[in-house]
Structure formats: structure tokens, C-alpha cells
Amino acid sequence: MELSIDWAYQLLKQEEVPAHIIRHSERVALVSLFLGCSLVKKGNNLDLRVLTLAALLHDVKKFSSLKTGENHALAGYKLMKGLGLERMGEIIYAHIYLKAPKPGSLISEEEIVFYADKRVMHDRIVPLRERFRDLETRYGRTLKAIIRMRLLEEMTLILERRLFKNLDITPESFLKLNDVREVRGVLEKKLEDCSDSWGSFL
Questions:
Q1: CA 121 vs CA 97, 118, 200: distances in Å
Q2: Can you give the pLDDT at residue 138?
Q3: Angle at CA of residue 200, ends 196 and 202, nearest 5°
Q4: Facing residues of 149 across strands?
Q5: Measured in Å, how far apart are the chain's first and last C-alpha atoms?
Q6: pTM
Q7: Residues 125, 27: contact at Cβ < 8 Å?
Q8: Helix runs in the chain, H state only
Q9: Is there a contact between 77 and 90 (Cβ–Cβ < 8 Å)?
Q10: Which H or E element spans position 126?
Q11: Which stretch of DSSP H or E encloses residue 124?
């Protein structure tokens, strides 16, 4: 099995993922790859292919799980494990259930996809604060839910500081990636060589 952008899109089609979820997932993959490229330049050891494909497939089971009632992160993990791609499944699972990193550990693919997902509201890249206000409006029906979301927001802000600590870019830089119209083509191109050509978007 050749792990490629084409393969990921074929799997999305096979799993009958709706267009609006694919558009969201494309932006999450774009943020993940851009951040991953930036971190690799600073010496982080990341598998950019696995990172990008896991980001593109992080919600592969979201629509079907609405019908089955299964947790979509767990269902995504099981799908990938069944395909012999457990590492990718671990990243997909962690976009909901991220474990706190050990002190001094290197940044992981799990952290990047978790963060990227929180930066994309529907199919638009937004600041974390805007994303969490939207989530609170839509899902904050109880005090417990509001408290949970605010704790998650604070955790994600701490993660943001960790991710950008040694980078020459800022979280605001990612907003310019909203200008990308043909995400699939950019993912394919940058996955082959992301060394220096992000400048046209920044």
C-alpha cells in the first residue's frame, strides 16, 4: 500500500465522508504540514507523511459515528489498525484524547494534529480564542460542558506556546493559509519538498 495523498482521498471517498468534513480535514492537514515543516527545520524529528495523512483522515469516521454512536476518534484508530497503520491510528485517536507530553520530550505528530484541529473552524483557519468561543456557543449547554471546554482551551494555549517556542513564525501566520484555494495540490507539492517555498502564503 502506497501512502499518498491520493490514497487518503480514496479512503475518504470509500468511507463516504461528506464534502464539508473533507474541507475541514484539508485545512487541518494544511496547518499540520506547515507546522511540521517549520518544526523539522528547527531539528524536530517528525514523519511528515504520516503526520499529513493522519491529519487528512482524522475525521474519517466522524460522519458514520453519528449513526452508530461510536466515538469517532476510536473508530478512526480501529480503521487504521485494521489497515496495518497503527501509528496513524494513534495520531487520529489523539486528536481528541491527547496525553500530556513528558517533560523534555520532543514535539509529536499527535500534538500537531490535535492543535491543528483546534485551529480550524469548519473550513476556515482561525485563532484559538475564536474557535473555542464557537465551540462554547454550540456545545456549552451545561456548566460542566463550559468548564470542560475552557480547561481544554487553556491546555491548547499551553500547547500552542510549546509548539511555537523556537519557531520564527507566529500562530497568526497560519491565517494566511486561508488564501490557499486548491489544498490537495499544495499538500501533494509540499509533502514532496516543504523546505523553503511556503513564503508565497505568508
A1: 19, 7, 23
A2: 86
A3: 90
A4: none
A5: 35
A6: 0.94
A7: yes
A8: 5-14, 19-41, 48-56, 62-68, 72-82, 86-94, 109-119, 128-139, 143-164, 183-192
A9: yes
A10: none
A11: strand 124-125
125 - beta bridge partners? 120
- Per-residue pLDDT, 121: 96
Mean pLDDT by 10 residues, the chain (202 residues): 93 96 97 96 94 98 87 95 97 94 91 98 96 89 91 95 94 94 94 74 62
- Position of cell 517556542? 165
pLDDT at position 195: 72
User: Amino acid identity of 116?
Assistant: A
pLDDT value for 100: 87
Residue 74 has a CB neighbour count (10 Å cut-off) of: 16
Domain boundaries, the chain: 5-196
- Alpha carbon distances (Å) from 202 to 27, 76, 86, 163, 197: 16, 32, 34, 18, 10
> Which CATH code fits 5-196?
1.10.3210
